Amino acid sequence: MARIAGVDIPKNKQIKYALQYIHGIGLAFSQKILEQTGINPATKSDDLTEAENSRLRELIDHEYRVEGELRKEVNLNIKRLIDIGSYRGLRHRRNLPVRGQKTRTNARTRKGVKKTVAGRGQKRGMAKT
Predict the structure, then answer these.
(1) Backbone angles phi, psi at 44, to 5 degrees
(2) Structural domain tally of the chain?
(3) In this predicted model, what pLDDT tens digit does every residue of 43-63 receive, in sequence order?
(4) Is the domain of 107 the same as that of 77?
(5) Could you tell me the pTM of the whole model?
(6) Which of 24, 63, 80, 128 has the fewest CB neighbours in a 10 Å radius?
(7) How far is the C-alpha of 66 from the C-alpha of 12, rounded, in Å?
(8) Is 120 part of a structural domain of the chain?
(9) Other C-beta atoms within 10 Å of 25: how many?
(10) Do residues 48 and 15 lie in contact, with contact meaning Cβ atoms separated by under 8 Å?
């Protein structure tokens, strides 16, 4: 099992898909990396030679921002938005959707489990049945 950028790459997968286990590398970046290193994208990850592994490791370490460095940058960008008090920062602070989605019925991923509020649903003066 190869270890690239601090992540164990899964065995028995094509390398173009195995590289996607690294945070910050999707299919397009994966194909671009393999093109730069001259590795066949259909090669299984456990069939890579040590030289190919080292070429991949060096290219990703020097050319791309991945894993911890990328996560740190994203968190600092969010913190900056919160600190300057922008609309997006306020949405992050309140844990609401940031990109304009409606929140009346959906947004459960951001808002969490539904919280029941007293006084909703029953109209005043209606008898319970």
Answers:
(1) -70, 145
(2) 2
(3) 998 888 999 999 999 999 999
(4) yes
(5) 0.74
(6) 128
(7) 23
(8) no
(9) 21
(10) yes
